[in-house]
Amino acid sequence: MTLTSVAQKYRQQSPLVFCLTNTVVTNFTANVLLASGAAPAMTNLPGEAGPFASVASAVLVNLGTPSTEQLRAMDEAIHGANEAGTPWVLDPVAVGALPVRTDFARKILAQRPTLIRGNASEILALSGRSSTGRGVDAKDTVQAAIEAGRELATDYGSVVAISGAADAIIDATRSVLVHSNGIGLTGITGGGCSLGAICAGMLAVSEDPFEAAIAAHGMYGLAAEKALAISRGPGSFAMAFLDELSAMDPEELQNLRLEEANNA
Amino acid sequence: MTLTSVAQKYRQQSPLVFCLTNTVVTNFTANVLLASGAAPAMTNLPGEAGPFASVASAVLVNLGTPSTEQLRAMDEAIHGANEAGTPWVLDPVAVGALPVRTDFARKILAQRPTLIRGNASEILALSGRSSTGRGVDAKDTVQAAIEAGRELATDYGSVVAISGAADAIIDATRSVLVHSNGIGLTGITGGGCSLGAICAGMLAVSEDPFEAAIAAHGMYGLAAEKALAISRGPGSFAMAFLDELSAMDPEELQNLRLEEANNA
Amino acid sequence: MTLTSVAQKYRQQSPLVFCLTNTVVTNFTANVLLASGAAPAMTNLPGEAGPFASVASAVLVNLGTPSTEQLRAMDEAIHGANEAGTPWVLDPVAVGALPVRTDFARKILAQRPTLIRGNASEILALSGRSSTGRGVDAKDTVQAAIEAGRELATDYGSVVAISGAADAIIDATRSVLVHSNGIGLTGITGGGCSLGAICAGMLAVSEDPFEAAIAAHGMYGLAAEKALAISRGPGSFAMAFLDELSAMDPEELQNLRLEEANNA
After folding, report:
1. pTM above threshold 0.90
2. Are strands B39-41 and C166-170 parallel, antiparallel or unpaired?
3. How far is C3 from chain A (nearest CA, A)?
4. DSSP one-letter string for A240-257
5. How confident is the model at residue B264 (pLDDT cuts 50, 70, 90)?
6. Residue B260: what pLDDT?
7. Confidence band, pLDDT 50/70/90 cuts, at residue C245
8. How many CB atoms neighbour CB B160 within 10 A?
9. Chains contacting A with at least 3 CB pairs below 8 Å?
10. Choosing among B31, B74, B86, which should be mutated to test the C contact, i.e. which has the most C CBs within 10 A?
11. Other C-beta atoms within 10 Å of A263: how many?
C-alpha cells in the first residue's frame, strides 16, 4: 500500500486503540487518537485488560507511570493481544533511568512487541547499552541508537521507531529516516507518547508494520509542522496540533520527506 | 423552577462536586466544572471518600478506568452519599464491553443512583439488554435505548440521561429530548464524562432531578453549539467550549429546544 | 542573586523536577514545567521513587489524590531527597478537609520540607489551626494565615508560600507579599499545583529558598497577568498562560511588585 492508502484506511476503519499508558498523557493521547480518526479506550484493571486486548484493534503499552496493578494489567493485555494476534506497541518511557520499568520492559521484550517506539536513550537502554538519558529526555542522537534499534528489531521481530530531529524506522532488513519539523512536540508533554498510540492504530490497518510506522510518524510530523507555523508557544501549539491532525488530508503523506537511514 | 433559575442557583451556590472519575478526563472534568461555575474535588482513597461524600454537594461515580482501590472508594462514597442524602450520579462507561465494571455497575444500581448518564449502548447494557457498543463508543441510537432507560428509571428511582444526537432525559413518568448540536463533543475525550459532573452539580441545586438533568444537558449543549461555530478543529473546540461555558448567561436556557420523547 | 538571575539560571539549567502529584493536574503540571524551561518527570512507584529523588534536581510532593501506593512512593521520595540533599516541596492539598492526607502531611512535616506551598486554609490546617476550607477552595484570607505560616517556617525550617489575592512568602525571619493579577488561575484546575512544581525547580537553582520562592511566584504571576489580558475565558487563558510562560524574559522579573508582609 502507499502511505496515503494506509492513512485513508485508518480514517475509514477508525481502529479501537486500547492504551495502557501513563497518567500524564492519558487525556492528550485520547484526544490525539480522536483527532487522527481512531477510537481510544483505556482500562488498567486486571480482569479487564486481557479480554479487552483481544477485541481491540491494537494495544499500546506505555511505561511512563506504572502502578503495581497497571503492570499486572499490562502483562495480561500483552498475553491477550498475542493470543488474539492483535498488534501491540511498547513505549519504554524512561527505561534505563528507573529500575522497575527497566526490568519489566526487558521481560516483556520476550513477548515480541509488534513495534517499539522510544527516544534514542530509551532504545539504547532497552538494548542493554549505556545511555546518557535522565528520564524522558533523550541525551543521545538518533544516529547513535540505530545499531541498537536494528539489534532489537532482529532479536524480537519488532519494528523499532526512534524519535528525534528526524525519526528512524527500522526493521530487521530495512531502515528509513522520516524528516519533519517536530520541534513543537518537544515543548509539550506527551508528544512522543501519543505518537506511540497512533503507531498502534496504524498497525491495525496495515499488513506491513514497517509501513504502518512510517505512516504514523508521517501524519504526526506533518501535523506538527503545520501547527508550529500558526502557533505562538506551547499552549497554542497543542491546540493547533489537534486541529491540524483532524484536518489532515491523507494525500499529504505523498509529500513526506523520507531518506534511507545509515547505521552509526 | 425554570431552567434559567436552576442555572442561576448553580452559579450562585457553586456546588462542590466530588468526582470519582477516570484518569483520562480528570483535568477536563475539573475545568468544565470550574467554567460552569461549580467547584470540583477529587479523592479516590478509601477512608477519605466516605466522609467526603457526606460533606460534598453531589458525587459523581464514573467507571471509566477503575482501580481496585478506586472501586472500594466508590463503594464508600456511595454509602456516604446515601446516608447523608447527597445526590449521586452513575456514569457506566463501557459497561457491557468490560467485565469488572459491568458487575460493579449492576451491583451499585441497588444503591439507587439519583441519576444515570450514559450513551445508548451503555444504558442498554446496564439494563441487561444486548448492545453493539465497543467500549466508549455508542453504536446504538438514543431511540433504541429509551425503553431500557425507562425501565432503569422505574426500577431504581433514578433519572436516566442518554446522550446522542439529541439527549433523552427519562424518569418513571416523564421523558424529554434535549436538542442541541453537540457534535464537537464527540471529537474530544471527556465530552460525556464531564457532562455527568455538571449533572451532579445541578442535582445539588434543584429539588427535581429530572429538571436538573435538563438544565445540565441544556447548558452543556448550548455551550457546545456556540463553541463549534468559532472553532476549526477539536483543539480549538475544547478551548472555546470552556470559554463559552464560562460566559453563558443562564437566560439562554430559555432558548433550549425541548421535545417530548417517544418510546421506541 | 537577583530574581532575574535566578530565572536565567532556571532556563539555562533546566532542572529535572520529579513530581509526585495528583491525577487531575499531571498533564498541566508537566506542560507548565516545560513551558517555564524545566524538565518534568513522574513516577509513583515504590522502588523507583526513592532512587529517582536522589538524582532529580528537586521533588514535588502534592497530596491532591493520593493512592495507598503513591503515599508509599512519597515516603520513599522524601527520604531519598533528604539523604541526597535534594530540595523538596510539600503541597498539602485539601489538608484539614480530608483525613488520610491530613495525617500524612503532619507526619512528613517532620522530614522538613524545603518549601510548603498552599492556600490559606491549607496552611492554617497544616499548622493545627481551624480553617473554613472545603477541599481545594481557600475560604480564609492570606493575611489570616501568615502567623500560621511563620510558625511552620520556624518549626520545620521551611519556606512557606501562601497563595491568594497576593501571595505571601515567609521564612523564619523574612516575609514578603508578591503582587500580581492571578485571578485567571482560579478559573482553571492546577493553578496552584503547578506553581508548586515551578517552586521546586527554582529551589534547584538558588542557594536561598526564600528567593527561589519569590522568583517562582513572580514568573508565574506575571505570565498569568499577561495571559489574562489576551484571553476571553478559562480555555483560552490556559492556552495563553503556557504561551506567556514560555515567552517570558527573565528581565521582566525586575518589574515584580513586592511588599513587606505584616503578621495578622
Report:
1. yes
2. unpaired
3. 23
4. HHHHHHHH--GGGGGG-E
5. very low
6. 84
7. very high
8. 31
9. B, C
10. B31
11. 10
